[in-house]
């Protein structure tokens, strides 16, 4: 014991640069975080599932058996077989390859949309909560307007106006989904800005930006984290929905686009279940995995939910 | 010359329910190297006075009148930048409830370093060294600078807060309830430390507390505040030995006396008045057992009853 503690002291007394020290601190907190995360079975299952899909997305060119756009790789509308484990579509394209490549687009749009929504929401929420007054009224008015508008029609209108590309899809989803984050962040900021440490920072001479970025933001981040992950589920489902309605990017094949083609090309009428079920299952699985992760994060961040 | 002189300070809060006269025309001064105590019950304007001196009054609060003269200059006439120069370098503050005065997500050392770097032109490494020295001065192992606030005990946080207040060698430290929420033993340690540092660094201290024993132990002069006004102002010994104002008497009597253990502490009947609509005349009259008609109508002013002992009461002096 004594030996250990003296060794620790030695290790600590070695002078290291501030940057390396910060890195070391970060490493330590990640390790501690993982220790807590590991205790959640649901979190591990979710993480495993998500990692599987991420791996599929990253290795798409290596693992997909055909070019997803290549026609006549087999008989049109043929069911699952050895050559085509998930069958073919109306033009004889391989559906498994489409699903594999679609993973990329669906995940990408989901990530980008939820990250940008969080970014907008955090910025608006913190500015609104911190400064209050007229700024607060204007920003929260805007937030409320977007919050009460029905999302699907709003997304359809904006998507139709902006034109079809995956970036626009992500943008549209972000535009309609930031307000709830803004609300959460604002309420947190309102209580945090009254904390004694903010007053102390102010008396020391810290400016508004410094207080917001260095004193309030780090205290808000954990709450946003779970929120962002859960938002990703909504973003991926929204992407699928918009694509299915024909507002997706025809040059990219996402899971939603596969469903769209199946609908237009008569997959539903011809009973080509292999064409319809797989994208649906994939969307569900990713949604479930992200929800599991979100729950696990929530449990860590909100210790009252933790079971000992 | 006094280091700090507060003259007729009025700080009002303009709320929807009316104007709250939190501090309504108070005056006092603090000499160099001296400790001044401001006592009174919760909500009488003690903390508002401190925040007014620090220039930290936020909307809807406003300093409407008076002057705060520090080293011969009126702080109320200074710009924000000039005030930033004085704050922490010359006047610093130990905040009420030091438990929360440290940001939980930053290390204690980093927060002291931040305070130093705002005011001194030195490198981060030098500032870190200084922070460690400061912690050592208040009796905390310097290696603990790398700890987060939750890894500190309450007393340690309070001492670290003192270290932070002293980080830029101020002349005046305002301590707002520095020992509330600490147990008596730690309270004594913290007070002893403050006393020792006061002597060593020749600090002036303004101590705000509702705990008269803390003030009696620390201060040279004392002002008793009631409903935004100072009702009695004298040196500590004469005030605690011969309190004149009925409110001061009540406050002192409401503490158990260690020399007279048979005597029960007495309470002051009634509630502190609303500061939106303070009672006319003497603000204490609804609760004062000796109130006369004059007390209900005419507002008493601080009167010198000899030996620099000031009382605002019609029954005493005049």
Write a short abstract of this structure.
The complex is a heterodimer of chains A (308) and B (318). With 308 residues, chain A is mainly alpha-helical. Helix content of chain A is 76%, strand content 0%.
Task: Tell me what the structure shows.
Chain A is globular and about 75 Å long. In chain A, helix 3 (41-58) crosses helix 5 and helix 10 (208-247) packs antiparallel against helix 12 (273-301). With 308 residues, chain A is an all-alpha fold. Chain A has helices at residues 2-13, 18-38, 41-58, 60-63, 95-131, 133-148, 151-162, 166-192, 196-204, 208-247, 255-264, 273-301. Mean pLDDT of chain A is 86; it is low at 1-14. The two termini of chain B are 30 Å apart. In chain B, the strands form 2 sheets. In chain B, strands 6-7-8-3-9-10-12-11 form an 8-stranded mixed β-sheet, with helices on both faces. Chain B has 10 helices and 12 strands. Chain B is of the alpha/beta class. Chain B is globular and about 65 Å long.
| Shape-level CATH architecture of the largest domain in chain B | 3-Layer(aba) Sandwich
Biggest sheet record of chain A = none
User: How is the CATH topology of the largest domain in chain B named?
Assistant: Rossmann fold
Structural class of chain A: mainly alpha
In CATH, the architecture of chain A is Orthogonal Bundle
Indicate the percent of residues in helices of chain B: 25-40%
Counted up, domains of chain B total 2
What is the CATH fold-level name of chain A? MetI-like fold
Report the C-alpha radius of gyration of chain B, rounded: 20 Å
Series of secondary-structure elements of chain A, N-terminal to C-terminal: HHHHHHHHHHHH
Helices and strands of chain B, in N-to-C order? EEEHEEHEHHHEHEHEEHHHEE
Overall mean pLDDT score of chain B? 88
Number of domains of chain A: 1
Record keyword descriptors for this entry.
heterodimer; A: 308 residues; mainly alpha; MetI-like fold; 12 helices; globular; B: 318 residues; alpha/beta; Rossmann fold; 2 domains; eight-stranded mixed sheet; four-stranded antiparallel sheet; 31% helix; 24% strand
């Amino acid at each position: 014991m004594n030996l250990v503690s003296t060794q620790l002291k030695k290790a600590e007394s070695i002078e290291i640069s501030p940057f390396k020290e910060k890195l070391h601190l970060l490493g330590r907190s990640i390790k501690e975080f993982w220790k807590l995360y590991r205790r959640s079975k649901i979190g591990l299952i979710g993480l495993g599932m998500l990692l599987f899909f991420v791996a599929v997305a990253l290795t798409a060119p290596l693992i997909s058996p055909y070019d997803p756009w290549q026609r006549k790789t087999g008989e049109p509308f043929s069911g699952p077989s050895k050559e085509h484990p998930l069958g073919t579509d109306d033009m004889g394209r391989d559906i498994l390859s489409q699903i594999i490549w679609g993973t990329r687009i669906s995940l990408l749009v989901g990530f980008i949309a939820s990250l940008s929504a969080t970014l907008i929401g955090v910025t608006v929420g913190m500015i609104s909560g911190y400064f209050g007054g007229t700024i607060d009224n204007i920003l929260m008015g805007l937030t409320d307007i977007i919050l009460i508008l029905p999302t699907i029609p709003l997304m359809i209108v904006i998507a139709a106006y902006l034109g079809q590309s995956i970036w626009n899809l992500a943008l549209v989803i972000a535009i309609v989904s930031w307000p709830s984050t803004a609300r959460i962040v604002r309420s947190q900021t309102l209580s945090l800005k009254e904390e004694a440490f903010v007053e102390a920072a102010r008396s020391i001479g810290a400016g508004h930006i410094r207080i917001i970025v260095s004193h309030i933001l780090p205290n808000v981040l954990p709450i946003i984290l779970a929120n962002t992950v859960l938002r990703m589920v909504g973003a991926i489902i929204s992407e699928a929905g918009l694509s299915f309605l024909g507002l997706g990017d025809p040059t990219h094949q996402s899971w939603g686009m596969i469903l769209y083609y199946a609908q237009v090309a008569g997959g539903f009428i011809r009973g080509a279940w292999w064409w319809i079920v797989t994208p649906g299952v994939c969307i569900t699985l990713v949604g479930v995995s992200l929800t599991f992760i979100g729950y696990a994060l929530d449990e860590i961040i909100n210790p009252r939910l933790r079971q000992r | 010359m006094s280091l700090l002189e507060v003259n007729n300070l009025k700080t009002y809060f303009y709320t929807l329910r009316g104007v709250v006269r939190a501090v309504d025309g108070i005056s006092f001064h603090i000499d160099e190297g001296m400790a001044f105590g401001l006592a009174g019950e919760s909500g009488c304007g003690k903390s508002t006075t401190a925040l007014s001196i620090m220039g930290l009054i936020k909307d809807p609060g406003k300093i409407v009148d008076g002057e705060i003269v520090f080293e011969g200059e009126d702080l109320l006439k200074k710009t924000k930048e000039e005030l930033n120069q004085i704050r922490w370098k010359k006047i610093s503050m130990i905040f009420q409830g030091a438990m929360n005065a440290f940001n939980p997500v930053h290390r204690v050392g980093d927060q002291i370093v931040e305070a130093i770097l705002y005011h001194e032109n030195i490198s981060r490494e030098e500032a870190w060294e200084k922070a460690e020295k400061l912690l050592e001065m208040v009796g905390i192992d310097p290696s603990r600078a790398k700890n987060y606030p939750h890894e500190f005990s309450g007393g340690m946080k309070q001492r670290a807060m003192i270290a932070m207040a002293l980080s830029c060698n101020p002349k005046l430290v305002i301590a707002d309830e520095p020992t509330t929420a600490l147990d008596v033993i730690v309270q004594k340690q913290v007070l002893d430390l403050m006393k020792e540092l006061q002597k060593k660094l020749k600090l002036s201290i303004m101590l705000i507390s509702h705990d008269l024993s803390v003030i009696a132990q620390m201060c040279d002069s004392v002002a008793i505040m009631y409903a935004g006004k100072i009702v009695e102002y004298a040196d500590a010994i004469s005030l605690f030995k011969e309190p004149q104002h009925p409110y001061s008497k009540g406050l002192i009597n409401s503490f158990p006396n260690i020399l007279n253990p048979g005597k029960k502490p007495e309470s002051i009947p009634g509630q502190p008045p609303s500061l939106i609509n303070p009672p006319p005349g003497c603000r204490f009259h609804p609760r004062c057992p000796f109130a006369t008609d004059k007390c209900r109508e005419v507002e008493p002013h601080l009167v010198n009853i000899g030996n620099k002992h000031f009382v605002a009461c019609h029954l005493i002096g005049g």
